Amino acid sequence: MTRSLPRIALTIGDVAGIGPEVVVSAIAEQRLTEFCRPLVVGHPAVVKRAKQLLGATFDITEVDSLAEIDWCSPSVPCWNPSIAEAEDVPVGRTDARAGRAAYDYLVAATRVALRGEIDAITTAPLNKAALHAAGLNFPGHTEILAQECGVQDFAMMLYLPPGNQLPKGEFGLGVAHVTLHTSIRSVPGLLTTPHICETIQLVSDFLKRVGCHSPRVGVCALNPHAGEEGLFGDEESTLIAPAVEAARNLGVDAKGPLPADALLRRAVYGEFDGVAAMYHDQGHIALKLIGFERAVNITLGLPIIRTSPSHGTAFDIAWQGKARAEGFVEAVRTAALLVRSRTNG
After folding, report:
1. C-alpha torsion 60→64→65→70, nearest 10
2. The whole model's pTM is what?
3. What are the backbone angles phi and psi of residue 205, rounded to the nearest 5°?
4. I need a labelling partner for 2 at 20 to 30 A (CA). Which of 27, 38, 39, 64 fits?
5. Tens digits of per-residue pLDDT, 161-195?
6. Which domains, ranges and CATH numbers included, belong to the chain?
7. Could you give the CA distance from residue 338 to residue 36 in angstroms, rounded to a whole number?
């Protein structure tokens, strides 16, 4: 590892899930160290247990602060910023201690990223029920990150890098969501023209960061058939169309609102570089269907870089040696790409 590689913090997420395994597996296969200098953020006893489960042989060095890290050492630093007793958490079950620890790992990594002590964060999954059991009223990573970073305009993007899953698309395909972790019932009331416009802009700005100089952004309708001229709802004409027009006036090549089922197919086949979806599953289902193992979550609108794999804690297979690390590796690779684009920009 060299000093020029980006320093990326890898939070292990909920210790009862597959997070520790995928982090250890990614490092053990020695792919991460080709493009970053990793810092594992989590309980060292849990990390060592995952190493033993997988037969991993890399060395780790426990540190109490980032000032102790020798970034040029082949040994991987492990930092535990939480006092939660996470090492005793039963596997595959919701536990308040795991929720508290996952929160502490994320918050600590965010704060050192804000101070410039690391270059990016890649997060293994946390469990929302465990967060709530710990008294932490957050629906997921994105909302915690937004609070810690003090931002109001943010979005969650699911990004599929270029590859075999996309018939066309030199720069991959990114889908960002206007609303995040919320009920379907609440979505129409949460949509506003300014928020939709901000999401369209965030999609376009992200695509420029990965090298797409003239991004084409498709904007999903909320209702089937784009409302069928008001028969199925009027959000398309009252909220979404004005947002698309506002984004176009700001220089974004945006088109919509378009029926979501047709738009996502058109985007996969290269007609659009990015998509603004109105709610979580509207965008997630299509991309996970074609590229679940490689799709990367990216939080847009933050002053720091944060990525994660698209899978969850997978309690049903946790700590059985079955978890696959491809998605986590792709998330770290994307974080490194974004660090380079920020540095070069």
Report:
1. -30
2. 0.88
3. -65, -40
4. 64
5. 876 566 666 788 999 999 987 899 999 999 999 99
6. 7-150+302-344 (3.40.718.10), 155-288 (3.40.718.10)
7. 12
